[in-house]
Amino acid sequence: MVVVILAVLAAAIGPRLAAMGGREVRASAMEVGDLVSVAARRDALTSQRVAIEFEGDKSRLVLMTMDVAPSGGGSPVAEWREDKLIPPVLLGNTKITDASTDGVALDARGWRVEFPQGGRRPALALILSDPKGKEHWRVELPSSAAHAAISPGNALGMSDQAVDLDAGGGGTSPW
Q: pTM value?
């Protein structure tokens, strides 16, 4: 009787425990998407320079802002500082297995992607996975987007190319 009860419990709880890693990666992907989206909106709506920095040794993503402070010599000094309004994303067991900006791979140990004020913002693509590499989520921010796209899987696929529907031959007909 005890063996039957344990078998029923194992059958009910086993799949939930196996899916825990996937939920953690999904939650991390959502947090990363929120951070990247906040950075994109701040870049578009303010004059303050922003960047996203990955600290591989601490396994966290941080929103950085450019602060200009007066120096002892008279000329102001600009330096990157962690934004205190937006908490960093602590990845925990989630790993960034692939990161690229405008199609160029970023160093897995650490990187910073700066958003140039008034210029074209680089496209950012990240793939997150669980420690075993079984569950993957991707976070992509095209250069012209205000929000990050978050989706399951490990293949990057969003196009950063703008599509001119009028040039597609539609003319004045509705799309």
A: 0.74
